[in-house]
Amino acid sequence: MDTIKYTLSENQIPQSWYNIQADLPTPMAPVLHPGTYQPITAKDLEPLFPAALISQEVTTERWIEIPEEVQSIYRQWRPTPLYRARRLEEALDTPAKIYYKYEGVSPAGSHKPNTAIPQAYYNKQAGVKRLITETGAGQWGSSLAVAGAFFGLEVVVYMVKVSYRQKPYRRAFMESFGARVIASPSDETQAGRKILQENPDSTGSLGIAISEAVEVAVQDEQTKYSLGSVLNHVLHHQTVIGQEALTQLEQAGDYPDIIVGCTGGGSNFAGIAFPFMGAKLRGEQSDIKFVAVEPAACPTLTKGKYTYDFGDTAHLTPLVKMYTLGSTFVPQGIHAGGLRYHGMAPLLSHVVDLGLIETRAFTQLDCFASGLTFARSEGILPAPEANHAVKGAIDEALRCKEEGVSKTILFNLCGHGHFDMQAYMDYQAGLLRDTEYSAEEIAMALSGLPVIR
Fold it and tell me: Where are the transmembrane segments (predicted)?
């Protein structure tokens, strides 16, 4: 029988999150205080995060134990299935074998609850009453809203204004779970009011929304900030994806030659890739090519600069060394809202700088075309963000066809597109346009980077 779906039992959910820092040849650059530009301390992070998450952020230990309370909620949808894309292989007429890990089966329809649940858990344990966050496309905000409902926490979400308008059903989903959703930039914060004063028609950005959320969080002792990507502990939490995929590929008697994931802040790519990359770094497995795919409209890895920058527009967050387009960069309103971020996770940026990952940038029209090819073959309509990974995997499969070689390709289908139907309607009506940034525009965006001596 040609197996399509590889599943695991609940007792095969990973018991620990994986931290790739334990296996990297060189350590990451230190995080710097936004006021002094000196290495930040754990105490500096206390206004934003509970102690347990701060510990996970700074640790270099290989394994971080997953609390039983978190595992019990993970069991609502984990382990997620691994699929062999046999119909897609046939449609492409490729000798490649294509597998995808499907995270759209979670309550929020994406990979984001993998970190929302533990973040809510640790905050609840610390006596926190309210979580403040930002969201682009709404997948992260949806996930934190669900987590807040599970743990009895109030949740407030600053949603990038262009996505707030594009995705009313994402807003409705968050509100159904009790979250308050605010279009960003807003007039509720000093950061938001400043942006609106300069540009009343601002469509917003994740950098702006982060500024608003952080500003509110530091003003209330019972409120903490929660982030859905970028930070080390978030990337650790997502490694349940890759750990499960390792076991499922053992079931299939296979191992990937190529791993593909989309990148905005870096969490879903790290989730699928880092467990395999760690095995490679430890010399336990053969060589793998890792491919990170991003939008041409927000080309952080492919055209950005690896340097210290702020994670938000108002410069309230610590300085981290990462690939960045500049903290004031406001990308065009492409439908892949979860990938519209000026920076990239410092841990993923470090791995890219070490030469362990190849990077690609694709336009949204090509990505939507690939998403529909995938949907009509496999029966799952991807989120616009996930379409970038689909496009990357299809390109690799077609390269195998051209070269007459059979390789095993694994990619992370990080979420479904059920709340993104307007995007697909616009695409099929010919209303979407491709946007790419010139070298001059990139240089201008990078001109305001902080000077670190």
Answer: none
Radius of gyration from C-alpha coordinates of the chain = 20
Helix extents (H) in 126-239: 139-151, 161-166, 168-176, 190-198, 206-217, 232-238
Mean pLDDT for the stretch of residues 255-260: 97
Q: Which tens digit of pLDDT belongs to each residue from 99-138?
A: 999 999 999 999 999 999 999 999 999 999 999 999 988 8
3-class DSSP state of 41 = coil
Under DSSP, the state recorded for 337 is: G
37: three-class secondary structure by DSSP: coil
Domain total of the chain? 2
3-state helix, strand, coil in the chain (%, to 5): 45, 20, 40
> What is the amino acid identity at position 24?
L
281 and 335 in a single domain? The answer is yes
Q: What is the pLDDT of residue 342?
A: 85
Tell me whether residue 22 is in a domain. no
Identify the band that residue 436 occupies on the pLDDT scale cut at 50, 70 and 90.
confident
Q: Pick the most confident of 312-316, 405-409, 440-444.
A: 405-409
- On whether residue 70 sits in a domain, the answer given is no
pTM for the complete prediction?
0.95
CATH code for the domain in which residue 296 is found: 3.40.50.1100
- Residues 370, 296, single domain; the answer is yes
SS (H, E, C) 249-265: HHHHCCCCCEEEEECCC
Which domain does 184 fall in, by range?
A: 113-227
Q: Which residue, of 227, 253, 269, is where some domain finishes?
A: 227
Rounded mean pLDDT of 336-361? 89
